[in-house]
Amino acid sequence: MIGNKLQIRVVQVLVNAVLLLAVFLLLMPYLYMISASFKEGNEIFSIPIKLLPDGLYLDNYALLFGETNFPRWFLNSVFVSVSRMAIAILVSVMAGYAFAKFDFRFKNLLFVLVLATLTLPIYVLIVPLYDMMVTLGWTDRYVALILPFAAQAIGVFLARQYLISIPDEILDAARVDGASEWVVFWRVVLPISTPVMAVLGILFFTTAWNDFIWPLVVMTEDNKFPVALGLPTLLGPYSQEYGAVMAGSFLSTLPIIIVFLIAQRRFIEALTAGAVKG
Class of 58-277 per CATH? Predict the structure, then answer.
């Protein structure tokens, strides 16, 4: 009996040690990025490497905000990411609701075709998408960064799988009370879908914020760049502002952290409310 408890304890200690090591390895690059944003250029590349700066060198942030378009890039990313996330969530929930709760011809075939698009990497779609943007005259416009990704198969799949679990009796009760399908969707389906919408919000916002390849293809004007595309322009053959890049990289992670924390809270609140009602 004592031997079994000791063995279980040893396993727990080893598992916790591995988890702590994994957390340390994940956090170290991020912590070094924050530290490097407060270092001078020669201090960043000093050997041996020092995790903490000798002092708070704020010129990197002054350079970032005073001599670059970082504020505009940041606002561009916020606008594009929020718009793209909101539209993609709405389209995903609407399509997922249709596939989950309605019967129509070729429903299964259409759903399989939607899932099949998950096998296509973005590099395969770049050429036809760019040709469409040129034809529509959308190059160097924010709409080119938003609308092509308004419908995403992973969102439709997750929304459908979640909405299948909703009892049909809830929807039928709303219809019996005289609610139209639009009212049922807006006042019944959407509030119930808060958990999956939180997951989709984190997924879509993070993807939009970190997108680099597509903006690189369709955007050429510096003042319309998102953060992911603007920061690399600070590193070139005649100018290498690594400190400013570190500062911009650190600031650009904050919106993702904020969205994650907000969505996580909403997700937990929705689950708790559902459990209490149940």
Answer: mainly alpha
Strand-pairing partners, residue 240, are 235
Could you write out the three-class secondary structure of 15-67?
HHHHHHHHHHHHHHHHHHHHHHCCCCHHHHCCCCCCCCCCCCCCHHHHHHHHC
Domain ranges of the chain: 58-277
Helix (H, G, I), strand (E, B), or coil: what is residue 240? strand
Q: Could you report the per-residue pLDDT of 68-93, keeping only the tens digit for each?
A: 899 999 999 999 999 999 999 999 99
Residue 76 contacts residue 224 (beta carbons within 8 Å): yes
Residue 198 CA to residue 274 CA, distance in Å, equals 15
Q: How many CB atoms lie within 10 A of CB 142?
A: 16
Counts for the chain of helices (H) and strands (E), in that order: 15, 0
Residues 160, 111: contact at Cβ < 8 Å?
yes
What's the pTM value of the predicted model, to 2 decimals? 0.84
